Amino acid sequence: MHRSDEFLIDNAPQQARFFGLDFPAPPPIDEYITEDTVINLNGTELKFINTPGHSPGSVCIIDDKNKNVFCGDLIFKNSIGRTDLQGGDLKILLDSVKNKLFKHTKDDYILHPGHMEITNVKDEREYNPFLVSGK
């Protein structure tokens, strides 16, 4: 995980109790993801970029070989991730999309969000109402 989201793990048991759930202590973090982190899986190189906004430690995982981006809750088809939760920030999220994600990818990259439908960089750059205004 990215170091900037460590507070979420530290607070997970308290958050769970807030919802009436029991959450055991999570295992220790064995490695922090940075923008130097690269993972090779069966000949596919996965790069990581920190894209804060939904949370301070949000990351996108980029597979340049197959033109895929696993973007979590940063961006969705015609929408963006929530920024009203602890550590979220709308201005930072929009900056992450425009100046990090879009700069590391091309229009034909497929975006795989944490949930909802897949989309692509071109459509989001052109039609996403949160990104179109103030280009």
Question: Could you walk me through the main structural features you see in this protein, from its secondary elements to its overall organization?
Answer:
The chain has helices at about 5-10, 10-20, 90-105, 120-125, 130, and strands spanning about 40, 45-50, 60-65, 70, 75, 80, 110-115, 120. Strand 7 and strand 8 form a beta hairpin. The strands form two sheets. It has a six-stranded mixed β-sheet. It is of the alpha+beta class.
The CATH H-level homologous superfamily: Ribonuclease Z/Hydroxyacylglutathione hydrolase-like
Supply Rg: 16 Å
Inertia-based shape: globular
Average the pLDDT over all residues and give the rounded result.
94
The number of strands is: 8
Helix content: 25-40%
Give the helix tally. Answer: 5
CATH topology (fold) name: Metallo-beta-lactamase, Chain A
Q: Largest beta sheet: what is the strand line-up?
A: 1-2-3-4-7-8
Q: What series of H and E elements makes up the topology?
A: HHEEEEEEHEEHH
Into which percentage range does the β-strand content fall? Answer: 15-25%
End-to-end Cα distance: 31 Å
CATH-defined architecture: 4-Layer Sandwich
**Count of discrete domains:** 1
Biggest sheet architecture: 6 strands, mixed
CATH C-level class is Alpha Beta
Low-confidence stretches: none
Protein structure class: alpha+beta
